[in-house]
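Subject: Sanity check before I submit

Could someone independently write out the structure tokens for this chain? I want to compare against mine line by line before I put it in a report. The sequence has 131 residues.
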Amino acid sequence: MLTTLIAQLPHPLNQTINGIGPLGDPNLTKCNSVTLLASTLSSIIGFITVLAFVWFTFQIIVAAIQWVASGGEKAAVQSAQQRITHSIIGLVISVAGVFIVILISNILGIGNILNLLDIFPKLVPGPDPCV
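---
Independent answer below. Compare away.
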């Protein structure tokens, strides 16, 4: 049985390397790439925020179960109380962080800085090339 490894296959060196998924589109223009990057970053920020909310909520539930299962043991109850306190603080920081960023960007006159589709074209000096 004869097998060929991928490293043994000929690969021409004069070809361009394409990206993966939508980034590999050869018709991707400067404006489209900015839009794609902005929407990707916005999705990542939103996903991380939701993930943090779910994680801290899960931690509160686990700490509550730990508290109930402690059987009145003082050290276990204190551990569960600390875990609940830390989870609530983390939850508040996660949610408040988004609102603080929006508040500061509005005070500075930037607008909604979390809307990267609106912010990215403003970073390029000169007129907006996407208009």
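---
OP: Matches mine. For the report I'm noting this point. The chain has a mean pLDDT of 81.
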